Amino acid sequence: xxxxxxxxxxxxxxxxxxxxxxxxxxxxxxxxxAAGLGVTRPAVSQHLKVLKHAGLVTARQEGTRRVYQxxxxxxxxxxxxxxxxxDRALAALKTAAESESDS
Amino acid sequence: xxxxxxxxxxxxxxxxxxxxxxxxxxxxxxxxxAAGLGVTRPAVSQHLKVLKHAGLVTARQEGTRRVYQxxxxxxxxxxxxxxxxxDRALAALKTAAESESDS
DNA sequence: ACTTACGGTAAGTTATGACTAACCATTCAC
DNA sequence: GTGAATGGTTAGTCATAACTTACCGTAAGT
Lengths: 103, 103
Fold this sequence. Notes:
The structure is a homodimer of 103-residue chains.
Chain A (H helix, E strand, L loop, with lengths): L2 H8 L3 H12 L2 E2 H5 L6 H13 L3 E6 L2 E6 L1 H31 L1
Antiparallel strand pairs in A: 1-3, 2-3
Helix pairs in contact in A: 1-5, 2-4
Chain B binds a DNA duplex (30 and 30 nucleotides) through helix 4.
């Protein structure tokens, strides 16, 4: 599985979307992430592991805290992936428009 | 759940990613999509239903065939969503770079 | 009217992953 | 050294969704 594929799988979970969105606002330690999220802290750890493996977040240790932040390279990979579809979607629209004006 | 959220959930499944990628090349009827995909045609129908509900594909009837194609609006929604993170990821990088040059 | 091709839907199966509780390692303050 | 805070990991639970098979409606040709 490619990394952009893994990234989409990672963000395919609603809880992980929320985690990612919160990290996008600012880097945050795990405990703080878990607070108010409605799931346990170990669950958050597991989600972060998936996001990290997908290249969407990075982690650094600050004393007892493990601070996570989003990784722009992962976001960029996803944007590049989507750009492919954008080009093609436009081409498909053009073709469809031409077909309709022909008929 | 918002539509971009639903779109990410939709593309969070590897089979649906493959379906989406094949439709990105050109519009295609269900039966043709199912061929070579390794899952049954009803499974493909169910996946297409999810993609359609997420605003990522549209369908038109052509006689007995139901032809699906990708929907640029759905792709655009996802790109817009990712743009938010891109801006913030860059800002986070800047902040981190400044912190490192300070220390 | 009959047959074939096409595809949506329902229902059943089951593997998977999101969740929890428990355990343990690391860091840091006292 | 001790205790508290932090967080990764493991193992168990179970709801869900990805899959299949079966059914049925529609379109089109004969």
